[in-house]
Each structure stands twice: as C-alpha cells, then as structure tokens.
C-alpha cells in the first residue's frame, strides 16, 4: 500500500520530430512518481513553449496542448510536492527568461540548503515566485555573468547541497545533471527515428524508454554533467568522482516501477530477492503467502518461492479509484482500506496466512488490513515487511511523514506487532536489504532506516 | 486483457438511512461491469429523485448529488452499452411516472425480442425516448391497467424473452427479478444498521456487499420475483422452476471480479481451476508461467501450481491510464498494448515462457503481446487460453464483436497460433471449463463457445 | 426593470443550407424571451438530430454542436419555464419517435387544460417524462392512428385549450400553428439564398428575421395551420375565424424587443405612444424625464416629446452582469438594484424628476429605485407607469407572480405611491393602452390588467 | 460602438471587514475598463492571498474564492492587455515576496521606457516572468536596499516614464500613486462601516464607489503618493507639482462609464456638451437624431437638445452577447454589426437621420452601420462624431490600432465620408472638445488627436 510519495520524475528529449509527444509518453510512463502536477516545455527554433497544470498527465495535456508544444526538443516533469505548497506557481519545469536566453529546469530531488540560498538571494533583490527549492537554481544561473550555461551549472553546483537530478533545456541544448552522491536516478537512452536519425533521451526510470521504444544506454553518473547540442553529446563533471555514494535504496524498495532498471538493477528482481531473504531470515510455517497488492507482489513471489508456501492473491485490489471519493457518513469498518483492497474470504477462511508488504510507516493501514483479513476468516496472520523498520524522515526528495508519525521510531517490533494485531511480525534486516541490492552502505543512502544522513542537514532535522 | 464488455451492474437497497451513498458504493465496487454511464434513483417519502450521467461513478456523482438523493431506498446502475446508442437518454435506471406512481428500472441483460415489442407498442401510440430494450418493460408496465406492480411484472415476463436481472424501485417497494433461465447473476444481502435495524441489498456481484459491509444471504433464483416493502420480504415466481438453466459461464471466465461469488461459486477459485485443468490438458515444459495481467493472473497461479513451473510477473501493467490518451503520430511498435503492458526483459531474456490469458477474441492483441515478449528476449512463447475458442456472439447482454471478427469462428487453432506468432497455442476444452465451474451444459449458457443459444433469437443472429 | 418572464421563443426554417446556424441566430436574436434553456432539432434526409442544454444560446451551442446538426431544415426554442420544473427533460424542442416517424415540437404559450389531458392519457398507459404541458401534444399525436400530421394536429387542437404558437418539424415538413385566439405571436418570413433559392422562416418576433437577413411576409393567423414541404407552402385552419381574438397586449408593453414588429405593430412605436398618452393622462411639471433603463426608454422618449420636458439618462445601467453574482454579506442599501442601475447624482441633484417604467408588479424594486434616486439628490420623484395596474396573473404563457404578490391586486394607487415612496404615481389607463396599440378589448387579451380571461381556466385560477 | 480598449481598472480598500468582497464589487463596477482578466490580492494579518484568472470578474471569482481571500485590506485589477501577451502570468495584481515582505501591484497605464529598464535589469540577473511593463516596478522595488516602501516608490518613480496609476498593497499598508502628468484617473473615497469605523477606498472611477456605498473624497493628485496604514492617512509627492498635466481626454470621450466622475468632471455631462458643441459646429437639418448605442447616447441627447431635432432610439442594441459567437459560413450582409445593432425600419423609413458616434477609428464599422441604416429605409444619413479625427496611437495605456489602421491619419474628412458612405460627415473640433471638458491643451493629453505626446517615446513611435 502506497504511503510514501517520491518527489517527481524528469524527462528530456533532443532531436525528435515528436519531442513533446514523446515527453508526454515519458511522463505518462513515470506517472507513479508524481500525480499532483505535470508540465512540458518544448524548444522550437530557439524559443520555448510551456504547458503545465495540476493533475494527471492524461488530464493536463489535451491534444491541442501537444500541438502547441512544437519543436524537436523538450523536457517534462511530474511532481508530488515535497517542499513547496501545492500551487500553480510550483509546477515544473520552472522557466525563466535569462539574459542569455530562455531556460527551463525539471528537478527530481531536494536541496537541503535551499532556505539559506533563498534568503541570501532575496537580500540581494531576487524575486521568488514559487515556494520550491528549484527556483534557487534559476536565480543562481541568472546572476552568473557568464553566458556559458555549463559553466554556470558547475558554479551553481558549488553552492547547492542535496539530492538533484536535473533535466535542463536552454535555447540550444539539453542538459542532464546528477548530484555528486547520486541520490536520485537519471538514465540516458537513444531512440531510432523513422528518418534514420537518432534522438537522445533522459528519464528518471527506464520504463519511460520502454514505452517510447528507446534503448537504454547508461546512467548519468553521480557528479556528471551531460549535454547534447547540434554538435552532439558532451560530458563533464561538476565534482570529482567519490567513493562514497548515496543512491536511494528506497527506489528499489518501493518507489520505482518494478519493470524499471534503477541504478543498473532490475527493480523486480531486487524485490523478489528481498522476499527471498526475508523468508530466510524470518520464515514461519503457514498455508499461503499473500501480498498486499500491488507493491507487495514481487517480494511475495520471492518469499513463496524460497519458502515453498503457495502464493495466492488473497486480497483483490480495485483499480477503479476515481479522483474524488465520497465517504459514507455512517461508519463502515476499515472503510478507507476496503475501497482499494478486498480480502477474499473464500480463500482465507480457516487459513494461516503470511502477508507481505513492502514497508510499514505509521502502522494504521496495516492494522486495518489485518483486521479485514481476520474478518474474512483467516486463522493466523503473520505480517512480513520486505524492508527494515523506518525510523527517520527523508530530506532528499521523498515525502515522508514526520518522525513522530513513524511507528518504528518509537516502538519495538513487538509493540508494533501488538498495535497492528498480527500473530507475528518481522522486518527484513538492513544487511538483508543491502544483499538484495548487491550493495553496501557506502554506496546507498538508507538514512530512513539507519539514520546515517550523507550530507549536512542545515537545521532541517529540527523541523520534522 | 479486456476485450469483452458486460452490459452492466445493478444495485438496490431498502431501509437504509444512507441509501444513495450505499448505492454509490455498490456501483463503485461494480465499476468493472460498465464504465460508460451511471445512475441512481432514490425514494424519499413516496417520491423518486434521480441523478444520472455519462462517465465513471466517481465522476458522475459529486457530493452534492448524493445529498440531493435523499431517502431510505435506492437503486443504481452502471452501464456499458450493448443495445442502444451511447446517449443521455439511455442512461439507467430508466424512470417513468405511471398512473400508479413513479417507477425506476435498472436492467442487467438483454431482451432478444425487444424489437418486436417496441414495434407493436409504437403502433399503439407509445412514445419511445431511449433506444434500449429496457424501455419496453416500462411501457408494458404502464399499459397494464392493474395497479399491482408484482402482477404487472409477472404479466410482462410473459412477453419478454432473453436475459434480465432487474432491480426495480416503485413508490413503496424494492423489487428484484431474474429471468427463468438465470442468465445474469443477482444476489441478495442484508446490512446491519447502527440503529439496530436491517437493510436489504440487491447487487449483481457480492463484491458490492463486501465494500458496504453487507452479508450475503443467497442468490435471487432464476424465475424468482423478490420484493421488500414496509411489511418485510416477499417472494413469488414469474415462471415455474425449470431444469434447464443458462447461467452465463463467461461471468466466471472473465466478467466478474475475482473476489466475487457468482452463481454461488468463488470466481477466483473457478479461474484457478481453469488454469489447473488447462495445465493438465495442455501442459508443456517451460521456464516460467506468466499472466497477461490482470485478468490472466488467477488462471496462471493455478497453472503454475499444477505444473510446478514458477509463476512470474513477466509483464507489468501500468494502472495510470487516463481517460483520454494521445497517440504519437509517428509509429511506435505495438504502441496500443505498450501503454498498459510492459514485458520485463530482465526476467524474460533467453527464457521459455508460458503466457496465460483468460480468452482470445480477435487475436490482434495477443499477437502484439507475443511480439513484445519476444522483443524482450524470450526464447519460446507458449500461449494458453483459460477458456475454449470463442466462436459466436452473445445476445444476452455481453458486448461481443461480430462473428466475422471472432478469429476462432473462422480459423483452426493452428492457424490462430500462426497468426498470433506463438510457438504453441492451446485452449481449455469446454468439458474442462464445465469441470472448473462444477457444472453441466444444461445449467450454464456457453453459447459463445458451443453455439447452443438457449432461447429463440428473433432474427438477431442475422444482424451480427 | 425586468420582472416578467415570457415563456419562450420559437424558430423554424425550411430549405436552407445552413438551417441549424440560422436557427442558432434566430434563437440568439430572441434570447430576451427565455434564458433558461435552448435547443435545436435539425432534419437531415428524413432523420432528426437534436442538441439541447440549460443556459444561454451562446453557451448551449458550441461550434461542434452546430456542425453535428446537419440538414436543411430545423426548429429551435429558447425557454423561460412557466409550467414544468427547470430540468433537462423539459428543454424544448420536445421530440418523439412516432410510428409515422420522428417529430419535434417547439411551443410558445401555455395550455390551460394540460392537467386534465395528462391525467386521461396516463390512465391509458402513456408515459410522461417532462413535466410541461407540451408533452400532451406529443401523446395526442402519437395516439392518433392517422399518419397525416396535419390531420393529427387539427384533431389535437380540438382537445387542447389555451395559448399556443407551435413550430413543428416532422420527417418531411415544417409546420406552424397558432391557437384560434392568437395569444402569442408567430411570424412568417423568407430568406433569399446565395444559390438563388428561397428558404421559409418562422419566428416569434421579427427581430429574428433582421439578424439572418430574412424578409417579413406576414403573421401566421390565429387558428391557422401553415406548412411547407417539398411541394411548397400550404395553409389550412384548425378553427373557424372568429371576431374575438386575444392577442397578448403585454407583448407590446414589455416582452417583445422594441425593434420587433408584433401583431403587425412596431413595438417601439407602441411604447412611445404609451408614453405620450401617459403624459396626456397624468402630466406633471418637472425638470426632466428619466427612464428606468432599458425597458422604460421608449415610453420616456414619448413622454418627453409630448410633455416638452427634457429626456435625460438619469440612471445608468451596467450591462456587464455575470451569470452568478456574489453578494456582500454586509448590507449595502438597495444593493440588488444597484448592481444594474446607478442613478447619477450629478444629473439629479436638486431636480424634480419624472421616472418612467413599463410596469409595476410587486413594488419592491420601484421602492429601491426611488430611494436611490433620492439618495442621488433628487428633490421630487414622480413615478409614471406606461401600463395599467397589474391585478391578475397570466395563464397563457407568462411567468407572473401569484396574485397575492401583485401589489395592485390589493392596494389602491395612493397606497402603492406611499409604499414605493414616490411624490406622485400614475398608471396608463386601459383605454390609453388600447389606444396606443390601436386596438380594442375584443382583439387583445389584457386579462392581467382587467381580469377578463378569454378561455375557461380549468381550476388554474385557484392555484395562484 | 466599442473600438478602443482601455488597459485596466484598479481598486484598493483598507480596513474593511469584507475587503475582498468590496474589491470584487469594485472591479465589477469597472468591468468596462478590461474584460480579459481579473485578480484580487487580500491582506490577512500580514500575509497576502491571491486569486486571479482569465475572464470576466463574475466568472473569475466563484464564492469560495472570495471566502479564501480573507483579510481587511485588498487590491484588485481588471485588465485589457496593451503590452504583454494574453497569458496567466500577466494577470494583475502582480505579486512578489520581497525581503521586506510581500507586495502586490495593480497598474493602470503604460510605462514608455519599460523595454530599457527591463534590459538593464536582466543584464543584472533579474528574472522576468510576465511580459508586461509592470514587472519592472517590482524589480526596482526588490533591488532597492531600503525597506521603506514609500522611499522605494519615490526612487523608482525617478526611473519610470509614462502613465501610471498604481494601487499597491504591502504587508502593512495600502498605497496609491499617480504619475506626475496624471494621465490616468485615480480617486479616493471612504466607506462607513456598520461597526462605526471607516474604510478607505481607491478606484479608477467613481462608479466603483457608488456600487459599494462609498463616498467620493477627492482625486489622488498627479505626482502624489498617498497611503494608509494603522496610523491613518498620509500623503507625499513623487514629483513637484507641475503646470503641465496630461489627463487623458479619451476617458471623457469614450472610456469611462457615463455615471463616473473623472478628473472631477461628470462624464455624462462632458459627453452631452460634446454633442451640444458638435451641433453648434456642424448642425444640419434632419428628421431625427439617433445614437450608435450605447456609447453615442449622451452626445446624441446633447445634440438633440441643442438642435431641437427629436432624439430617437433608431438602432436597438442586443445586450445578450455571449462569450463566443458562431458565425454563419454563408455571408449575411454586415453580419458582425447586426449581432449587436438592429436599425428599426419602422422608425427610419424615408427619414433624414443624424447618427452620432463617440469616435471613428478604422471606419469599417461606421460603413456597416450606415449601410444597415440605409437598408432600413433612411433617405439621408448624416454622420457626426463627438470627438476630433483620431490621427495617432496612444502609448499611455490605451489599446489603439496601429497608425496605419487609423483612417483619419491618412484620409481627409471628405474621403472618409465617401468611404463610410455617409451623406455628410463632421467631427467635433479639438477646441470644441476642450471646451466640453472645460480644459486646455496644457491640462489634457489629446495626443491621439493632435499628435502632441507629452513624454519622450523611447522609440515606441517606430513600432506602430
């Protein structure tokens, strides 16, 4: 069950006769990373055209809007707000008319020193319109007397701290930038055109490439600045390569689509392995393994395979969830969960079931699910979480609840088990998780699980 | 993959302080049976209030509309058109102001002699507004000089032929009627109220009961007319009980939600059994069993269990499908299928895969899916259909393509295999399907598979 | 100030390559007769196409809707409800699929025995959908075994009593019918086409002809049934010619647009004469004559001319009135009137003013206007009404308040003067009004002024 | 007939419990000054809340929006674009989050050196979002290190040249500023509150005061900066008082509502005098004087009074003009004008008519009107314009056509007469116009008539 929200997805394309349509599809494929707003900026003969709106990609862009977004290059963005209120002005890509020409920026991540930068710039007379951190970058670019955007970005990267994967469009190039620690993914691909040419594509996840028929080339590397212009591809660095990286392990645990390759790993395979290792670490005898759909499915398949206990779709998910849903005023037990999830009593009656979920945040939803499973007649309910206990908030672009709301920050596993009313409860260990992603703690950021934040926090830790 | 559309779902509720909100939820849970339009008619102190519109339940009913639908009884309907153009006037429940008072009718099914009845009534001066078959019933009721609605319905049932499960609301009662052959499901439940009272509920599928916290009592029987009024429950018959029934087997194969009980059978279990028997009938060696999501999942689980071949989610379904989707003008291979389904090359590369789908209609979608699976690197693709070859259209409320478009009506299994480009293809046998639903050909209608239509067709067979 | 609402306008056109666009314009020009809803039905090769909606003509018909309304004949209707609630189902033209083919009816007027007819038809099994009187005509036509629509209309006219000007479209002709007493106007015109042909046009008012460049031919006569088909024009009667007519004098007083010719009279000239005669009957010395805009303007010009007292636009009307207008919660004196009307203190300060309005219904608006004029500094306010005291409701298609709300039904002229706080008040006499329209009480219906209703009322008089 | 568009109206209110509702009404009353967009910014406990949108005031502000605009102070703006494309970003009031707090600016007028200022600021790293001149002021304020907004405004006024009446809201005050030459009006009023207090009000025209029940105090003087804060009213100057003023005479001729007092003059009286003087200057014998409604009405009344020739409403204006109007594809003569204006043949037939319009720009509309009048049967048509020939564009906030489109810039009066097909044509003289407004050329800007632009134009004169 979804309880986390990633900040966004970015997309960029260069030299494509249907640039804005491809951007539309690329955002569409990455809709799971942000449903609050969407925007595309296209580049047509040196001029930029923007269309942005609140809502899902399919609603924000009627056909006329894509016709209007003429040109052969474009960037796009879908967003679920972390910093910045939910308003029109915050919809990305942000654009500005600099002295060197128009620039548009799409940002996945979060700058931890945005507040400091903003205050300094405002004192110098800069006018801020949006309330998000990305606007800081625009002002840093605008104030740089150099007209070389690559140099401006390199200099700006000396000032900003935090997580950022940028797709940037100027009047003459498409740029991709990834922060030195590599928090958020950013992948590069190419698309063969009918006319024999090739277009370059940037995206947060490879599933965007699959939809538009593009081929995956490689990741933009941590600390790399990549761009393409009429002379072809270029690459430089904004920082020296470092051994310490901070790839977000939660992309593997929950955020990314299972059919994406993120940090060069199949997300589906990572999750299956998390289920397998979870079974090894905390196996228990039962009649069936059932996922909390859809996010718990891959780990359940892994768990079932490893344990030999049959996999069953014991809970059916209703995908016809409309935009607004009207609650009955009279109480129906566990109603909020029931709208989406319906445990099957025909399957569960009298059975001992292992329920697999990807993560556990507040515990309230898990409690409701377990109650519904028991109402459906299950004899025993064993809850297994395919990630470690979540003990801290994220400051790098994930919309997590405050620490006070994270049940594992304050309660022991057995206390949580009692709260959610499970017969048993077990989490995947941090080591198990790292094993599943074939990684180490010096490559991945697992701060939400282990509290080791890989950057200074500039006082943000006090806010939550 | 969805290729069939059922005509609709009905819902009815009596003696509930939140009647229209429950109807809303009951339709919401049955949204899969019809996404074209939705409507609710409530009964407040002898007067009926209606709200209807084109679109999904969540969009048709803003909160104000439910506030306006006052009263303690209601019926509702969601619809996917079979007969009748897509227009406002065809949205059900249909209502009329009869001499005996207001009446509202929600209909799941299709009357095969509607054209004959309509012509006769028009000659007599009846004015038809909608273009659907259900309006015939209203005119038959209106023209009956009796003011006893039960008697009127019994007499009308002598004239109408075909499939019908009706939920009917008058000024003083809620009525449920099911045709003598029992084509379409109709179930009865009850809901305990906070005030200690009980409300009665009618629905097409039991999943509607689960959402509103109602308990399943029983099916309305074929040929039964059931009603509830201020004196309680009543039951009578519109026809003698017969041995020959015609329960739609396709409800089990595809239409109904897997978490519903239909014709007293768990749909999920029926489908798992179809997969198991399919494996027994047409097993083949392979590296994995993958479903065409979501409809192929239960049969795949059954097939995998029976065969011992691992189940994998080799194709990921994107559920963020907006209402309108803009196509790129440039061709992207198999684009239409790709929007929803993305085969995972990391999983499929070099593998021999068995792909399970619930049914196969035209073959064009299956061809695209198989091509995508091969592009993802699969070595062998064995297609298995968890139902028999579809050889004929349905005249009883299922929106099937014309016979000319049903590939199995014209081609052999091997010809179809070649067309869809599979390495092997096998269907479930009719006997296997009947075994899976523990039934016989004299209980179920399987006309779309075996051509044995259980009623006269009044010339309809020439139309398609 | 508008306080009365006419029921509607009708329009019809035959043999025009842009029939639905002309209908659109014809309704647009007659928008003042009904702003609640609008509809057009076109005829294309024997089939009818309808588009209807709530709201103003310009909003109900987007360009696509007119493209869809193909064909060379059309009828249209704008409506301000008298009988029948404000609902979708009541939007005219009403349509039905009769045994003889499709028929569409647009009606201006009101049938006083609709309730009796309806009850009789319902007893015979007719299903009524709308709540308006016009649906009775449809059922009478449907039940007539004759397939000759002219004969059906002649026979139906024997049953219906009241005010009716119909524009009717069948599969092969356009028909205009006016009731024997001729309550409501209905005019016939012709339009020269670019291709040399001629189209025939029906409308409630001649202003519709002006906009589409059509020429006025004549009125459809009281009791006449006129039609045009592929063989040309035809005329017959539904009733013998009678000396007693009942042309609605209020069309001249208020309803019709001043630039229309109604009952062969220029409305502007009639109103100017009303002002002249009012000045003769109730002249008083003053500094200026000012109209309540816009409806009082022609009478004011007449009054000023006759009296020699200067005409001034002492009150300015704001025409930017949006659809919804939000009231301040704090009280602003006479706010409701002020939104539309602003008296000019620069003009009125210290002056004795004669204020002319077309009619006076409840008196509350007049009171507010007079207060505003005094606040603006006027020394004396003499109110003059260019019609007689309104003492009774209308049952023939005008949406009047109940008798209890008509101030002149219960109070003397001097009591009214005190209530509206005028220094003097005078009405035009009934004789003066008849003189202004060059008519007599046996030609015009002036029931709202003199209580002489020209038909039986079938109990309606008790309702109001 | 409207052919000119003023740039906008401003409104401001301080210390009113219903500040945003009053702003809504104040904009509503000034809707004639700009129909493209509208916006309100309210001040609630030091924080600003904004709501803006494209369209009419009544549509931009649903009731919820006004509920959201909490606080006791507000400014508002309606706009018809002069500089700046029609886009969301250009909707005023413009807002910014300065270091000293939030500021919102509503601007009526046009800065003639905006392009120069913008270029200089962009070179310094300022980011511009809107394309209008008003954003320059925001940047000038933001870059001023002083936190005293009054001082910042005084310093900014040294840099900006052109026409400006500003209503400005900060976190602690409401400010009104009028440029030293006083091009555009800005008036100050007060409103007595139910609680005994007083609110201060700023508006472009006094008609806004009338609607909300406020009293006119005085004009903000040319070169004055007025503000109100918790300590009460204050006034200072941005420039020394000068003898040369440049009040826009076109406000009197056409822009302002006739019921407004502008530059201390009744607009209605000014226009009547223009008509009187026009009659003295260019009288001719005729049967009637008719206005082109509505803008020509006051001058016609003056002309008729002076000449003794009867005033008639010979052309009726249809006020039901929807937002979008669909044209017939077939040609109807003079269709575009006919939609709004319908000459009455009953009045005009065989008559010699004097037609009065407020101004004449391209001549094409006048030609159509005259043709319609002749079609209606007039024997002679004498056209009289109640202002001088328009020979040049405006650079101070009026949306005029380019000089090439101003017929009087290129043709003699007699050539124009021939073009518009009038029997005679005469304009008011510049001296006559000045006499009507009791002014001189050193007080008023009449550049559009006499070519004497009262400021440098910074190259703008080349653009048009």
Characterization of the model:
The structure is a homotetramer of 464-residue chains. The first copy, chain A, has 464 residues and is an alpha+beta fold. Chain A has 2 domains: 5-242, Aminohydrolase, N-terminal nucleophile (Ntn) domain (Glutamine Phosphoribosylpyrophosphate, subunit 1, domain 1, 4-Layer Sandwich); 261-317 and 325-463, Rossmann fold (3-Layer(aba) Sandwich), CATH 3.40.50.2020. In chain A, 28% of the residues lie in helices and 27% in strands. In chain A, the strands form 7 sheets. A 7-stranded antiparallel beta sheet of chain A has the order 4-3-5-2-11-10-12. A 6-stranded antiparallel beta sheet of chain A has the order 6-7-8-9-13-14. A 4-stranded parallel beta sheet of chain A has the order 18-21-22-24, sandwiched between helices. In chain A, helix 13 links the parallel strand 21 and strand 22. In chain A, helix 9 runs antiparallel to helix 15. The longest helix of chain A is centred in the middle third of the chain and has 16 residues, at 267-282. The radius of gyration of chain A is 23 Å and the shape is globular. Residues 1-5 of chain A have low confidence and may be disordered. Chains C and D meet through helix 1, helix 2, helix 7 and helix 10 of C and helix 1, helix 2, helix 7 and helix 10 of D.
Question: Outline of this structure?
Answer:
By secondary structure, chain A is an alpha+beta fold. Chain A contains 17 helices and 25 strands.
Feature tags:
17 helices; homotetramer; 464 residues; 6-stranded antiparallel sheet; Rossmann fold; Glutamine Phosphoribosylpyrophosphate, subunit 1, domain 1; 28% helix; 25 strands; alpha+beta; globular; disordered N terminus
């Amino acid at each position: 069950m979804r309880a986390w929200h990633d900040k966004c997805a970015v997309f960029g394309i260069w030299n494509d006769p249907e640039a804005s349509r491809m951007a539309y599809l690329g955002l569409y494929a990455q809709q799971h990373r942000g449903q609050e707003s969407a925007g595309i900026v296209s580049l047509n003969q040196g001029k930029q055209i923007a269309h942005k709106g609140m809502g899902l990609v399919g609603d924000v862009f009627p056909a006329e809007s894509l016709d209007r977004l003429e040109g052969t290059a474009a960037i796009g963005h879908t967003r679920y707000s972390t910093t910045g209120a939910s308003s029109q002005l915050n919809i990305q890509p942000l654009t500005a008319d600099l002295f060197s020409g128009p620039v548009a920026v799409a940002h996945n991540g979060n700058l931890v020193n945005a507040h400091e930068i903003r205050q300094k710039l405002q004192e110098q007379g800069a006018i801020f319109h949006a309330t998000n951190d990305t606007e800081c970058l625009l002002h840093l670019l605008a104030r740089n007397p150099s007209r070389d955007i690559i140099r401006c970005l390199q200099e700006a990267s000396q000032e900003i701290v935090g997580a950022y994967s940028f797709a940037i469009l100027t009047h003459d190039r498409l740029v991709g930038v990834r922060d030195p620690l590599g928090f958020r993914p950013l992948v590069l691909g190419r698309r063969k055109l009918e006319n024999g040419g090739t277009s370059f594509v940037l995206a947060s996840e490879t599933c965007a490439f699959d939809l538009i028929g593009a081929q995956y080339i490689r990741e933009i590397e941590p600390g790399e600045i990549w761009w393409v212009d009429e002379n072809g591809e270029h690459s430089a660095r904004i920082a020296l390569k470092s051994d310490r990286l901070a790839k977000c392990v939660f992309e593997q645990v929950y955020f990314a689509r299972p059919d994406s390759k993120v940090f060069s790993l199949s997300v589906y395979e990572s999750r299956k392995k998390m289920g397998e290792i979870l079974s090894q670490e905390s196996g228990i005898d039962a009649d069936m393994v059932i996922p909390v759909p859809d996010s718990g499915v891959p780990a359940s398949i892994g768990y079932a395979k490893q344990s030999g206990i049959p996999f069953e779709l014991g809970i059916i998910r209703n995908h016809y969830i409309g935009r607004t849903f009207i609650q009955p005023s009279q109480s129906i037990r566990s109603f909020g969960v029931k709208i989406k999830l319906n445990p099957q009593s025909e399957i569960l009656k009298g059975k001992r079931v292992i329920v697999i979920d990807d993560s556990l945040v507040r515990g309230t939803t898990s409690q409701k699910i377990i109650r519904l499973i028991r109402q459906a007649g299950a004899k025993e309910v064993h809850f297994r979480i395919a990630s470690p206990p979540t003990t801290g908030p994220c400051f790098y672009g994930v919309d997590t609840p405050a620490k006070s709301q994270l049940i594992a920050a304050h309660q022991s596993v057995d206390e949580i088990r009692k709260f959610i009313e499970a017969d048993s409860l077990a989490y995947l260990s941090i080591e198990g998780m790292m094993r599943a992603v074939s990684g180490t703690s010096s490559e991945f950021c697992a701060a939400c699980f282990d509290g080791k934040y890989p950057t200074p926090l500039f006082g943000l830790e006090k806010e939550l």
